[in-house]
Amino acid sequence: MIDIILTSLAISFVALLGFSIIKYFSLWSEADNLSIAAVSYGLGVGLISMQLYIYSRIGLQWSRELIMFPWFMLMLFVFINNIHSLSKFKIPKFNITSGINLILLFFIIAAASYTFFEALIRPVSVWDAVAIWMNKSKIFYFDQSITTNLLYLFDFGYPLVVSLFGTFIYIILGHINDSAVLLTSFAFYFFTALLLFSTIKKRFGLTYALIFTFLFVTTQNFVRHGGRMEAGQADLPLGYYTFVCLILLLDYFKQNKAKLLSLLSIYLGITGLIKSEALFITIAIVIPIIYQIYKTKHYNHLIILFFWVLPIIDWQLYKNDIAKPPNFYPFYQNILSWQRVVNTLLGMVKEFINIKSWNMLWIVYFYSFLIVKIKNKKELIIINTIILSQIFIYFLIYILNSAFNPESSAERLYVHIAPLVFFYLAIVFWKLIDLKDLRKSIMLLFSKVSSLFN
After folding, report:
1. In b/e form, how buried is each residue of 242-266, taking b as 16+ CB within 10 angstroms?
2. What's the mean pLDDT in 38-59?
3. To the nearest whole number, what is the mean pLDDT of the chain?
4. CB 3.0 to 4.6 Å from 235: which of 47, 146, 394, 415, for a disulfide?
5. DSSP per residue over 117-175, as a string?
6. What is the DSSP code string of 308-355?
7. Gyration radius of the chain over CA positions
8. Of 245, 247, 246, 227, which Cα lies nearest the Cα of 236?
9. Residues 43 and 160 sit within 8 Å (Cβ to Cβ)
10. What is the Cα–Cα distance from 118 to 182, expressed in whole angstroms?
11. Does 330 have pLDDT greater than 60?
12. Residue of higher predicted confidence among 237 and 407
């Protein structure tokens, strides 16, 4: 129980760190506190992980004191300089007195609570989570540094943000706890849902936001990655960071502010260090930014945007400086064939229609192309471009490398872009439905369900 409390406090501290930085430097001045809170966790995770990475590179000890002291001082500085404005801090208030809002909120809390406790009842159990991510966290913790020669025993090419953050949790606890560390996966699940809720609420209202948040938190694949069998992997964190980058990108298109681009550039740099696949996602987001800079003639913003690639370049150089590991894996014949193309298409489509994992998410998404015209709707075009470009990249990976196949990994890869699909559908269906009629329909459904138990 103490480990659970300490881990929860560490996660809260990380989120508060990110919140303090965003608020004090006014990096996202147009956002409400709820949206800032939702993205703050990701900023804190990135900063802590990069801190451990830098400490290891320069030979500094990984101790609680050396890790926490600079952040405590920064947060104290922010607090002192903003003490006069604390009285103006607004806590989000919601009118949830209506029956439908209370029912939706109840089921959202129930689903989140289930996922939370699922994260605690078992240690890391998925092979990839053990072999690629969590074992690195343990080795780094025991060695108190990034031990490069032991990286050869794992997937050497993967970046280290997720593993280093697991090490941070172990340092806070003072020992290894394979169950408590999975609360970091739940935190990504929670903050992704919070960002989806806050963004939709700001645009379309409380009830509509609760509906889509309920759909998100009850989607089985997110429950699995947030606390059940798939917890401990980097796919849900990548989905979270991709969603954060999208929301910041759309706001940048509206505001064209240098500070907002600075924040987006930081998140792009962190996103690129979550998984190797993230590089394609960051490029898909950077391209429209460059277009916007060219269109608005804010050429000085190119310098700010350039910073996103620096940590990625540093990681690549760091890997190349280390002797290449021996090849423990069998050689795969990467010969393109029509059979592989067909099998890849069938495997990917099979996962799209996997209702058990995704409910109707992907089916509704592709069906929306038939009923919604996105021409001249820049926002929808941007979202779809990112989603579809990633699907195409995954398709190319599958057909060009026989070491990968959709049956074993498509379910995880789709997590990277699924939050964007939820947001896209929220925008699309708002244009197609009458919310009052929707509320009446849902209330009628609940009344019929209730009558079955009377």
Report:
1. bbbbbbbbbbbbeeebeebbbbbbb
2. 95
3. 87
4. 415
5. HHHHSS---SHHIIIIIIHHHHHHHHHTS--HHHHTTS-TTS-SHHHHHHHHHHHHHTS
6. GGHHHHHHHHHHHHSPPPP--S--------HHHHHHHHHHHHHHHT-H
7. 22
8. 227
9. no
10. 9
11. no
12. 237
Take residue 110 and report the two structure tokens written for it: 């129930």
| C-alpha–C-alpha distance, residues 397 and 163, integer Å | 24
Residue with tokens 């990625």: 312
Q: Roughly what angle, to the nearest 10 degrees, separates helices 183-204 and 206-217?
A: 150
The answer to whether 246 and 386 have CB atoms below 8 angstroms apart is yes
How far is it, in rounded angstroms, from Cα 282 to Cα 242? Answer: 8
Q: What is the pLDDT of residues 365-406, one digit of tens each?
A: 999 998 887 777 889 999 999 999 999 999 998 888 766 788
- pLDDT band of residue 331 (cuts 50, 70, 90) is very low
Mean pLDDT to the nearest integer, 49-64: 93
CB 276 within 8 A of CB 157: yes
Provide, rounded to the nearest whole percent, the portion of the chain with pLDDT above 90.
62
Of 60, 202, 226, 48, the residue nearest 137 (C-alpha) = 48
Cβ distance 3 to 177 under 8 Å?
Answer: yes
Contact in structure between 158 and 132 (CB atoms under 8 Å): yes
In the structure encoding, which two tokens stand for residue 258, read together?
């240098």
CA distance 281 to 242: 7
36 Cβ neighbours under 8 A, 6+ residues apart = 19, 22, 23, 28
3-state secondary structure of 179: coil
CA–chain centroid gap for 417, Å, is: 9
> Can you tell me the distance from the alpha carbon of 302 to that of 416, in angstroms, rounded to the nearest whole number?
26
Mean pLDDT of the 99-128 span: 87
Helix, coil or strand: residue 101: helix
Amino acid at 315: W
Please give the C-alpha separations between residue 379 and each of 163, 375, 376, in angstroms, as whole numbers.
34, 10, 9
pLDDT for the residue 444 = 56
| List of residues 6+ apart from 169 with CB closer than 8 A | 7, 10, 137, 180, 181, 184
